[in-house]
Amino acid sequence: MANSQRVGLTQARAAPIAGGTHRVAVGVRMTALSPWLFLAPALGLLALYLVYPALATLWFALHDRAGQDFVGAANFAWAFHDPGVRRALANNLLWLLVVPATSTALGLLAAALTERLRWGGAARTLILMPVAISFVGAAVVWRFVYDFRPEGAAQTGLLNALVVAFGGTPRAWIALPFWNSFFLMAIVIWVQTGFAMVILAAALRGIGKDTVEAARLDGANGLQIFAWIVVPQIRGTIAVVWIAITLAVLKVFDIVLAMTNGQWNTGVLANLMFDRMFRGGGHLGQGAVIALVLIGLVAPVVFWTLCRARGQGQGR
Amino acid sequence: MRGRAVDLAVALFVLICTLPVVGLFVTSFRDKDQIAASGWWTAFSPVEETRAFRLPDRGEETGVLLGATLTGSVLAGDGRVTGFGITPRAPVAFAPGEVARFSGGGTVTVSADGAFSVSDRSGHAGGRRIYYGARLSPRLTLGNYVTVLGAEGLGRSFLNSAAVAIPSTVIPAVIACFAAYALAWMRFPGRALLVSAVVVLMAVPLQMALIPLLTLYNSAGQAFGFEAKSYVGLWLAHTGFGLPLAIFILRNAMSALPGAMIEAARMDGAGDFVIFSRVVLPLTLPALAGFAVFQFIWTWNDLLVALVFLGPQDDTLVLTGRLLNLLGSHGGDWQLLAAGAFVSIAAPLCVFFALQRYLVRGLLAGVSR
Amino acid sequence: MMTRLTCAVALMAAMSAPAVAENLIFAPDEDARFDWAGYEAFAASHRLEGERLSIFGPWRGQDRALFENVLAYFRAATGVEAVYASSENYEQQIVIDTQAGSPPDIAILPQPGLIRELAARGFLSPLGAETAGWLRENYAAGESWVGLGSATGPDGITALYALPYRSDLKSLVWYVPDNFADAGYVVPETMEDLKSLTERIAAEGASPWCIGLGSGGATGWPATDWVEEMVLRTQPVEVYDRWVTNALRFDDPAIVAAIEDFGWFARDHAFVDGGATAVATTDFRDSAAGLFAVPPKCYLMHQASFIASFFPEGVELGRDADFFYFPPYADTDLGRPVLGSGTLATITRDGRAARAFIDWLKTPIAHELWMAQTGFLTGFKGANPGAYANETLRRQGEILLNATTFRFDGSDLMPGWIGTGAFWTGMIDYVGGKPAAEVARAIQAEWDNGE
């Protein structure tokens, strides 16, 4: 592989950089058809598995519970008035505020710390490990952390055992009003931190040593250097990590299903959609409207990504 | 001194990240009663338990005759009795070796090794319950794994998950390579638009795709005479859902290659297919492997798509589905849950540790631009 | 590449295919408890070699094994290759499958509300007038079962769509006789006695009740049973019937009072093991363990007959654990109401094998084979009560056969988004401390909004 690269680069250096005339010649030689041959399987599958369902959802949103009669905007009106939708929307926004920020911050911290250690590689591997665990598996893992036994009984959940050891009273964490969402978020943060760390660690490695050295000569301490010299240089990467985790959080579904199934006010939109669509006979129209709300939440994120991509220029 | 602080901080980080998994691992070897009695971190120390034991009935059938002294042991395995009693509210009122008197007549004693002896002329004691507290040595067993792999059908589901995840990784990888090349290095009208579209499609929540797609599968299945629920259908569904990310990562990796190199190959008269297969693809392999690790973990860990497109039948149920069923039907059998969960995360963990180098590169390729 | 993969997969599937040898747990013609003559007759008239039948139902774990044992006889009698499947989220799964047009042949569901919904959309096949007549004749309270299984199809015609198979008795309180004897408690005959027993146990420093509402995706349902029991014990049965159809509003004072009556037990920290906080988070399957702990964590548990499947290993029914009827108030004149539930079989894809399976459920032996195992009750009068595996089951079956007022679990009769949604969530909120009136108003609001 390294060999072929060297050959390639040698050739590139040997050949004079192609001028406009050459480009035209290349263009003529290419048949107009061939890009589409390369693209056809992917486009076909994308159209079938993502575009068509999205259109079908739009159609369902305008129809009744069985997807038969046209009902106009009735489902949208329902979503506007339904307290469950409002609650799930609020929860989703809470997740969006907390999880990407915390995961990115912890990932950055882990990246910066492990960078300085001889055993940093091993540590990073272990911190990244939760990425490989399914959400259903994670739910079982975290049951042994959040388990609650009444006061006086031996606590079998790690968190309550710690609380009791320090003289507190055990709590039913996943039923605690408001705070229970944070205990669910902790699981997702647990999974995403490693992801953030790996990417940010690579970005840190790419930073010029001279800027850091210069700051040090100017008398800045470690924290100042990190905040004012290092972080601004990897701003772009931090944004990308943030976006990626945001997309993952919007689709959060399994962990809520397995831990609380949306009870105790922990419901998020993806769960509500699943519930509305399929539980107790289901209501296709209402489920579809929630799906559209979800897509609506994603839109600004996608828009931002697109602007950014355009800004970098993609023509080649 | 400062170095030591960093060491400590990282150690704490690692501890928090791994401790829940360690807990699961330890629990999966423990005995059901001990899981309920104490936390997993005490798994290697003796457990205190209080239990009931029903004395044998007297009578011809059981071979225990009226008036004889009843003997036996309350303990089935290793352990020491720390106290015993004759009422459930005071289960350890007597020290081992003391003699307790039943209200209706007759006496019982339990010694520290678990042996009990009942002397009873009236016949009141037979069939009664006595209670004892015992310090039981920790019981660690492989039995939980034997149970979940055999009787609970996890072994079967392991194969199902493999049959789902491997093709569902290979197919999108292959298809995305071609598409990514076209989007990175071929010029045609509408390319920028397509790239944008791929990004947009990454955001579509797949739960909403289930009913439209399954409906489509069914009508196609009826028209052309094939089963609507099949591995092929599931592979293609995973392919469709995974393609945007695959194209995104691979296109980024491909367009990061030096343009002069591609041009040079073109000048030498190489066609697109040759450039793709001989020049671009070999240089994109790390990113490809990175995506593959990602997709494998995702398809292996998926529950919803498999449940809908393959179904919950015994012979097709995937591992995550089996685990969720365990959560339901054995809500109280934590030892089985733990063993089952560990089996289900074992494969992705192995893949992860073996290929994490590529995973990291794939992640980097996907976001480095 | 693809072909090789396909081959590999096929090979793997072949290697791990389950053994097909039939395993009949009761040797035919030997045990006199079973109606072997009827079995032979059924077998003779239903030979369907080579046909396939997929059955989707709610039974998992041990129940699944018990049902598979019964199914083995159906396979042996008919030659049909019958496959049973279930999943933790079967309510959602069946909607996805029917909606998309890939249903199983037979769906066995515990929710008449869901069945009516599926029938209205044309996903079920009517069972025919002959089956309706049979049900009316041969079931205790047959008319109410016919009403329960009937629905209006897309053509506007009301017909029987579901045949009951396996019932559960809800109005039971479980206890450990040894613990009762030791403490000197007696089985209460009235609700007043039950309440004073509760207060007495609490006064003696113990927890009277184990209540667990946790149930994965269905968390909250055990509380709906409590509320229904209380409605039946404080209001005439007509109120109950109007309530489940929302002819009586959910926030009616009568219903709010019933919720608060449940709260008398569940929201008092001294009355429940672990206090009221533990109620919503304890899994109902785990809560049974509290009865059998030493010293006992609780003395009483209200739960349906099927809970016996979740008792710890080695518990002998009738000796280590027993039940009594959840009693009515003495100062009301409402008789002895019985709350129950059950599973109903529907045809989701018509065919000869599916029809044969419905016929199979009309044979006594299909019931007796499960009665002789455990956890099965039936209102089918043709089944031999002597087939029940033990005295406990037989006594429960008797309660069912002799019920004067029998009502089906109301949450299963309400529309899905209430009975298996808002009602559950509302009860979790209620035990969490929200006032009953507020909870009832919220549920009614969802009912209005969802229409």
TrEMBL record, chain A:
Superkingdom of the source species: Bacteria
Protein localization: Cell membrane
Chief site of localization: membrane
Membrane topology of this protein: Multi-pass membrane protein
Record field: transmembrane: 36-62, 93-113, 125-145, 157-176, 182-204, 225-250, 284-307
Keywords: Cell membrane, Membrane, Transmembrane, Transmembrane helix, Transport
Pfam families reported for this sequence: BPD_transp_1
Domain named ABC transmembrane type-1: residues: 89-307
Homology family: Belongs to the binding-protein-dependent transport system permease family.
Protein name: Sugar ABC transporter permease
Annotated source species: Albidovulum sediminicola
From TrEMBL, chain B:
Location of the ABC transmembrane type-1 domain: 158-355
Listed PROSITE patterns: ABC_TM1
Membrane-spanning ranges: 164-185, 192-214, 234-254, 275-298, 334-355
Gene3D superfamilies: MetI-like
Keyword tags: Cell membrane, Membrane, Transmembrane, Transmembrane helix, Transport
Main location: membrane
Membrane topology designation: Multi-pass membrane protein
Domain of life: Bacteria
Pfam families: BPD_transp_1 (PF00528)
UniProt-listed SUPFAM superfamilies: MetI-like
Locations listed in the record: Cell membrane
Family to which this protein belongs: Belongs to the binding-protein-dependent transport system permease family.
Name of the featured protein: Carbohydrate ABC transporter permease
Native organism taxonomy: Bacteria, Pseudomonadati, Pseudomonadota, Alphaproteobacteria, Rhodobacterales
UniProtKB/TrEMBL annotation, chain C:
Pfam families: SBP_bac_1 (PF01547)
Signal peptide: 1-21
Compartments, record wording: Periplasm
InterPro entries referenced in this protein's UniProt entry, alphabetically: Bact_solute-bd_prot1 (IPR050490), SBP (IPR006059)
Source organism superkingdom: Bacteria
UniProt KW keywords: Signal, Transport
Family of the protein in this entry: Belongs to the bacterial solute-binding protein 1 family.
Designated name of the protein: ABC transporter substrate-binding protein
Organism: Albidovulum sediminicola
Organism placement in taxonomy: Bacteria, Pseudomonadati, Pseudomonadota, Alphaproteobacteria, Rhodobacterales
